[in-house]
Amino acid sequence: MKRFSRTFAVLAIVGAASLAFVAAGPFAGAMGKPSYLNGVYEGSAPSHGGELTVTVTVKKSKIASVAVKATDSAGISDAAIAKIPAAIVKAQGVEVDAVAGASETSEAIKAAAAKALAGATLYPVASTMKTDVVVIGGGNAGLAAAVEAANAGAKVILVEKMAFLGGNTIRAGGAYNAVDPERQSRQGIEDSIDKHFQQTYEGGDKKADPALVRTFVEGAPEGLKWLEGMGMKFNDKVFTVLGALWPRSHATVDPVGTGFIKTLKAAADGKGVKVLLETKADQILREDGKVTGIVVVDAAGKRVRINAARGVVLATGGFAANKEMRQAYDSRITPNLGTTNHPGAMGDGIVMAERIGAALVGMEYIQMLPLGDPKTGVLEGWVGFNVEDYIYVNKDGKRFVSEAERRDVMTQALIKQRDQYMFVLCDAHSMPTPQSKNSFNESAEDCVKKGTAFTADTIEELAVKIGVDPAALRATIDEYNRGVEAKSDALGKKLLGNKLDKAPYYASPRVPTVHHTMGGVKIDTACRVIDAKGAAIPGLYAAGEVTGGIHGSNRLGGNALADTIVFGRIAGKNAGAKK
Q1: Candidate list 407, 510, 528, 555, residue with the active-site label
Q2: I want to staple 313 with a disulfide (CB 3.0 to 4.6 A). Which of 135, 158, 553, 579 is the partner?
Q3: Catalytic: 183?
Q4: Model pTM?
């Protein structure tokens, strides 16, 4: 699998700045002369004989030795392999001259050494803070980790680069998937942990780590009760969110994801968690193999070192807002596509973790949704609720996919439609009154007023408003209604609710949008970050969308918020207990 830092910066590194800083941080010249963290560090770079690996050993904050393992041609590369490492030690950096006649090997050694030193380089800081656990990221996963670390008796500092808490959670529809016999049985819904496991694992094409999936589905019900125990409210009616495949989605009483953040922030405040906003994590510190803290840039632009005696929890989210990064891993995700994510979802944590040796998994798995606003890509603005009670039609007024399918299947089907454009159609069964609200706390009436949806009292009138042939749309609706009555849909939709036959009718224009990055740093079931050799990195934990291996190639709708709670809690508990 290609690495983001390699993709964007291999040719850029010939000086003291490392690959990772070019990719995700300031240049070395702006930060003063660096020192180095003690330990043994590895880096690789392509050379004419294949991959070349450099091992850099740092002792007493100085580069003590540089060893090269290469398959370059003997004779041609010998001089570079003999001279460049010694020159790097003497210069205490990679700004050294290439060996004449062996320039390719020389540059490869310097690039590999720079990559190794990316995890060891420490630039001057203005001040230092101390705590037991530091959490990077103020969304669901980070806040859950902070609360549980504090519950374990740790002093906790949480840093968030944005000016507010919430991350993607605050933008989410609020659906939380969990097996819930008490609520589901009242609606006649049969469910089980095994069923949730099967749908999650198979829904991701069996590309996920089964142990992580099992941990997730078993922990989701407990996480629901944990939130309720802190005062969070969920509606009694369980539903099926887009792409969930089964009615086990729980809707919050508070709009969108605000209930999660409000509840967790109150708990964190009650536990004395120190929250630093507008504070961007710039570096994870790993010394003698163990993660000991982080370096941040605070709101005043000053570099601050935060030492963490027990551990660091990485909860920085994914990279759906980083157009260059997402295209590097999946060239089909073109820059013109919008995203549902907040602007801070740039993959910073993934780059920082890779810089100190973390393994990455599933980075090529990037999820799009078929429900983006045509102008902005955001999810808000469409009218409808519950998969069972709405359909999709294209510009020709025809259905083209089951609305209860996997998200990737629906989106790929939409991409094949004219102008990659569709309408979500529903009626009063889904939205009983104009004041009825969608998952984003918007009323049908408000969406119509904003121009993100259309309404009419007849199908034919609605068709005219959205520029679709009335006869074609009528034929589509009639066919769908016959399928609902017969409990056999022409496109294989398994979750069938009411007919579309009750005015008023609504249509909401939608396009594909980038929604979730399933890949990230590799973790085990204890949320310990795993390195490229398969060993846990002492002192580093991760949870939420910054991680990979939980959802495979496709995430089920409603699994993300549950994921952040389940693994955020585990990461916080283990960091707080120093496990």
Answers
A1: 407
A2: 135
A3: no
A4: 0.86
